[in-house]
Amino acid sequence: xxxxxxxxxxxxxxxxxxxxxxxxxxxxxxxxxxxxxxxxxxxxxxxxxxxxxxxxxxxxxxxxxxxxxxxxxxxxxxxxxxxxxxxxxxxxxxxxxxxxxxxxxxxxxxxxxxxxxxxxxxxxxxxxxxxxxxxxxxxxxxxxxxxxxxxxxxxxxxxxxxxxxxxxxxxxxxxxxxxxxxxxxxxxxxxxxxxxxxxxxxxxxxxxxxxxxxxxxxxxxxxxxxxxxxxxxxxxxxxxxxxxxxxxxxxxxxxxxxxxxxxxxxxxxxxxxxxxxxxxxxxxxxxxxxxxxxxxxxxxxxxxxxxxxxxxxxxxxxxxxxxxxxxx
Length: 328
Fold this sequence. Notes:
Layout: H1 3-21, E1 28-33, H2 41-53, E2 63-68, H3 76-85, E3 90-94, H4 97-104, E4 110-115, E5 135-139, H5 145-160, E6 166-170, H6 175-191, E7 194-197, H7 206-215, E8 220-223, H8 227-230, H9 233-241, E9 247-249, H10 252-257, E10 261-265, H11 267-282, E11 293-294, E12 298-303, H12 304-310, H13 316-321, E13 324-326
Parallel strand pairs: 1-2, 1-3, 3-4, 4-5, 5-11, 6-7, 6-8, 8-9, 9-10, 12-13
Antiparallel strand pairs: 10-12
């Protein structure tokens, strides 16, 4: 074999893998979370799962860009702009991050998830079936809205606390807390208990609100699912549990962390479905044509460790229907 031919073959052999390894820029899926990264670990897994279910693989079909506000909501706008600078194809924004992303990034397809307010009233969409704009996603309420969810939650809670006459509401005047309070007041009339509210303007007010509720003679405490309290759960939880009263909250994490009971839509399933929608948008579908999904999967968590400390006995029926029972 001639030397020139050998060099040509060797040159081709060396060059080929370099060409094969060259990859075009992958589309970016941006994710904006209002809380800390630690709290979002299972949600990240769920988004990845949803995108896999839709047939897309990270690192091959797309790549992620994540930003976390660590519970400091004033940072959300700046973080949204940071993500926009990366030129993502779609952004997934959860809870309190959703309205910020919708406002700050009006030209970027948005998938909101675990959103607890009405997306129509919030200006996200024209209707559930045909959103019509640049945003779609899923909401935590089922058919019947927050009042139906609250009614189910307190029918369950009254099996644990049948003598409930007065409930202390721990929450601020945020949009979500106000929605919860209105639903609670409506349900309270049907279930023969009253709602006592001492407004929380910031985290420093939680202890005072709990103490005031105790002076008012409440039998139990309800902890709002609003981002202020949820994203500062470690600080809030000891304060609401200190009086030794039964406690009830929304998201499963509250029950797992120590509240007597929690009941809400399954947040992990919400994030999985958001991943599916993000994959569809990467595939060319428009948010305007993707119906907003309402919650269809719910989680009841009973904390028997807390029940034992309070001297509360969980009925067998409730134990049978609980999705999670925390015993230690």
